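W.,

You were right to be curious about this one. When I first looked at the sequence I had no strong expectations either way, so I just let the prediction run and decided to look at it fresh. Below is the sequence, 396 residues in total, followed by the output.
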Amino acid sequence: MQEFRDETTPFRFSFSVTGRAARIAIDCRYVGPRPSGIGEVVASLIEHLPGLAPDLQFTLLRAPARTEPLSHAPNVREIVVRSPANGPITLMHLPLAVDLSGIDLFHAPANILPGGLRMPSITTVHDVMWLTHPHWCNPRPWGRIERLFYGHGIRRALSRSAAITTVSEASRAAITALAPEAAGRVLVTPSGVAEDFRPVARDPAALAALGVPAGRRYVLVVGQGAPYKNHEGALRAFAQAFGGDGTIDLVLVRRREASGAPITRLISACGLAGRVHCLGPMDRDALIRLYAGAEVLLHPSFIEGFGNPVAEAMACGCPVVTSDRSAMPEVAGGAALLADPYDTAALAAALRRVVDDPALSADLRERGLKRAAALDWREFAAANLELYRRVLAGTV
């Protein structure tokens, strides 16, 4: 019998794993049809875990929108949970939505720790923006509710999780600055990049079908439309770099929405009508074609937990210009040009350097491919598995 005690609360969790395989539940409800950075992390984790740990039993909580099984491994069972991962029941008392009896360890991989768990838990906190920079997450009125929701769930995770994983050293530093008492429980398990992100031949017809005019060169921006992605800064940098150069366009892929009123107004104000192509969510094959066909990816975020587009673009042989702060330099690993995301002129100069210098562009492509190859999802899963075993053994 192992006993887990959360030193910040009066709760004690006792569990026994004698005479049977340990049972680990993983919340996989972010894996669905809508593109999601967290969904990518979770899908990659469960792709490798069952094979790495045949001695363990995994219970995967699946969203109804995911109609296909998450895994066909013999040591996996799946439970469809109709309550959403970011819904009130999850936050207040998850056992109201799903029977977790017999579970020895719960992994919450989406920033918040659900309520009502009576077993040790591990939470993956990708970033703490909702606590440190909530205005960068969602400035709309609904964002006030989200701030309360995520703020409560993240604080609970920091105080009550047996262990906390995060995907970059930058996020680990932000977490420990916010909650120094959690420093000894935070482990970095760097994200990876899937093998199907790879260089492919540029196909003008396929790109035209996606919304890129045939034969046009383009700068690519990929990400959801939240303010921290700095898409307005990207537009201004593109305008400064290429406003007078009609041979190159900007392709903006927003994983939640193609554009919004501020973006539309800014395109007009910058004199870029007809040269900015705002695209909505893309499936993976389409995104790979866009990365592989771009002159350069521009990723000027103010902050990131990891920054998947940087790794994905490098894996596709696309040169990268990204921010010189937060997790971006760490992810790029010396294989990208870095610039201050608040400095439009610096971003514009970096873009021009890549587009105007074929030797630099080729060098960035080569270095990016090598860097991306080092970002391995199997290693990510193995690092999480090691932590599962430590928590189950009571050595964390």
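Here's what jumped out at me. Confidence is low (pLDDT under 50) at residues 1-16. And, maybe more interesting for your project: The chain has two domains: 2-192+376-393, 204-373.

Coffee later to discuss?

I.
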